[in-house]
Structure formats: C-alpha cells, structure tokens
Amino acid sequence: MAFKSTVNRTHLRLVREVEAIGGNVSASASCEQMSYTYDALKSYTPEMVEVLIDNVRNPAFLDWEVKEQIRSFVHMANDAFGRRVAKLLGDVFHVLLLVLLKTPLSVVSDREQLFRDDWGNWAARCRQVNHHERALLI
C-alpha cells in the first residue's frame, strides 16, 4: 500500500507529482522493515523528502485501494500456486518414471528429427539406446 493515496494527496496527484520531476518511486518490505525509495535529480530533494514523509506518516488506506490490492495479491497467489502445482506434477511424473523403469532418464530434444523420420525409423533409434538408460521426448 506504499505510494497510494494519503490524507494530503490522492494517488493520481502523487503519480503526477512524481512524473512531473521525472522521478521513480518504489517500496519493498521484509519481515521487520519497510523501505521507501524515490529516485530523481538531486535538485528535487525537498519535494522527494516531502512526498516520502507524507506517504510514511499519512496513509489514507481508502477502501477501494485496499480491495484492489487484495484482488491483485489473490490473483498473484493463485498464479504462483498454479505454477507450483504444475512443477510438482512434473516432478512426480519424473520420479514415477524413474521408479517404473528402474533406470536413469536422459532427454532427447531432437523433435525435428522425430518429425522428419517415419515412426519405424524413430522406433529403431529408440531401441539403439543402451539398456542403462531410456529416452524421453520433450
């Protein structure tokens, strides 16, 4: 909720003030600290300090801004969860193949060769893989 509306400024006004001097604002948080940064030319230091103090001391926490941030966070969390599930399923599949085949897996990434050859030639090539490894097409 950094650099959103404050008691003294709307979010739009804040954005316009930052853009007017060619500045860039950012914020980051960790477990025990919060960092607000404002990058611009040195000659604009008084304006930058005033904006930083206003954002730290007078946040407005408007209902619609809070709801927008919650919606954004939920969307990012769901997206990240979906990627983690897909990776987990891929890892489970890999382990299952290792257990079922009882041999290490190697990756064959020559898709173009697969599509140039007919199925019989490809099957013959797969049989040429030594008995210590199996080939997976990716």
Automatic annotation (TrEMBL):
GO terms for molecular function: metal ion binding. InterPro entries: Metalloenz_LuxS/M16, MPP/UQCRC_Complex, Pept_M16_N. Residues 1-72 form the Peptidase M16 N-terminal domain. PROSITE patterns: PROKAR_LIPOPROTEIN. Pfam families: Peptidase_M16. It comes from the Eukaryota. This is Peptidase M16 N-terminal domain-containing protein. It comes from Zea mays (Maize).
